[in-house]
Amino acid sequence: MTLSNSVLIEDEFLRDGLQNEARVFSVEEKLAYVRDLIAAGVKRIQVGSFVHPKWVPTMANTDELCAALPEAAGVTYTALVLNGAGLKRAQAVGLRHLSLSVSASETHSRKNTNRSVDEGRAAMAPVIEAALTDGIAVRAGIQSALGCGFEGKIDPEVVISIAKQWSALGAHEINLADTAGLANPVQVADLCARVRDAIAPEVALSLHLHDTRGLGMANMLAGLQAGVRVFDTALGGLGGCPFIPKAAGNISTEDVAFALEEMGFESGINWRALRSAVARAEAQLDRPLPGRMGHIFQPGEAQENAA
Fold it and tell me: Which residues are 139's β-sheet partners?
């Protein structure tokens, strides 16, 4: 099998990055990050989630943000949807790419949606079908696919069963999420290979990786070696799940773009151009972010702004 050197990065700073923060960012503040990401070459941006603001207050202005998104050639805007009500909201603002997901963990599923895994699957299937019928590109996700912050290991057969179901429904992409950041590279490679064999060949496979235990980048490399060419990241490495204590941030957009460049892959992202956005986020959140390449200067680079 010949694998492409082109890698698609979906930046999730505006959703996974901000969802766990106490500070609520305004629509204008969020739009500034959208413009930064586009200018740096990011081609897919997850702009928020259509969830009840009672549970995730930082996502309350997602509808307003979507209505104000700038048109940009080659850029896809997407959002997270967890139920039929969320799908209707996404349709109302005209989004044509959505991430619809359930958890493979019983505990996480109940904390996240108040449903068991089987109940979540049964409820999500018609939502996926409705989105596909409307011509929306669907990424069907599996949260806690590589470990649960409450239960620990997750049976791979549960993940494979969900992936098969989503593939059979016609999802365009299957996303495996290491929601709690508990995966290791061997596990990532094994699960990716097993899911890849289980789903239709035309369905893309993507990875959502967190860096809770410092293995996020190693897990990305394992995914690359397993043939994955779509990865979720977040500017500055911000992120975490409101329903999983101590789940650390996503792998950093600028770090991933740098690593891909060093290894000869093409992401189309100028990671250096993201430094000012990282600095602004750190100022607004009043703390340093875990991403590295927003702060590190390479040999020969100007360092006027270096600490």
Answer: 99, 173
Adjacent-strand bridge partners of 10: 44, 232
With contact defined as beta carbons under 8 Å apart, do 267 and 260 qualify?
A: yes
Q: Give the separation between CA 208 and CA 188, rounded to whole angstroms.
A: 11
Q: What is the pLDDT of residues 93-149, one digit of tens each?
A: 999 999 999 999 998 999 888 899 999 999 999 999 999 999 999 999 999 999 998
Distance CA 179, CA 159 (A): 13
Tens-digit pLDDT profile for residues 78-99: 999 999 999 999 999 999 999 9
* Cα angle, residue 209 at apex, residues 1 and 7 outer, rounded to 5°: 40
Is there a contact between 150 and 117 (Cβ–Cβ < 8 Å)?
Answer: no
At position 196, the amino acid (one-letter code) is R
CA atoms of 262 and 254, how far apart (whole Å): 12
What are the DSSP calls for 242-306, one per residue? Answer: TTSTT--PBPBHHHHHHHHHHTT-B----GGGGHHHHHHHHHHHTS--S-STTTPPPTT---TT-
Residue 12: left if φ>0, alpha if ψ -120 to 50, beta else—which one? alpha
pTM (2 decimals)? 0.94
The CA-atom distances, in angstroms, between 87 and each of 60, 130, 204 are 15, 9, 22
Q: Is-catalytic flag, 241?
A: yes
Catalytic, out of 66, 148, 192, 241:
241
